[in-house]
Amino acid sequence: MSPESTGQNEHYLTVYRRGFRTWRGNRPFWAGLFTILGGLPIAYFPYANMHLGNMTIAMSTTAGAGSLIIGVLLVTLGLTMWFHHIVRVFAGVAAILLALISIPVANIGGFIVGFVFSLLGGALSIAWVPGDAKGGVPDTGNAAYEHRSSEADDARAPEHGQEFQGTAAVPPQPMRFDGAVEADGGRHRAG
Known about the structure:
two-stranded antiparallel ribbon, mainly alpha
């Protein structure tokens, strides 16, 4: 084996970490994570019981089913942001709306924690855009490269008065204006 081939000698955790980093970079990962973390307290708190000594405090409300639905939908939207990131804008808007609805329905939005996480996840999902490919145009400052690119720009975008080669173009028609309209400064009179 040559000393240049270091890829075969890497530890399997390093390989998994790099794979996870690549996967995370191609989707709105943090938006999905915050949305999932926001949905969990919204769904959990209406069904939770706190024990203070011998006393049990039940936080169940009349809207327990509504908060469970909102929490499950937020978790589903977070997973959608991860695994189907094409619909990230829809998922973000839906997460924001569900977070706002959770305030009156689910114990003040999961005691504000679920509301804030869901709102942040929805906003991050709307704001996330895929990154550009790293194999872009090199910035070498080479004069031959600049000359070549300027020739390519000239071939792609013809100047005014030039015609495309091999295409049927409609000749430009002169614009006709009504002389009476321009004689009065462009104002029209009724009657």
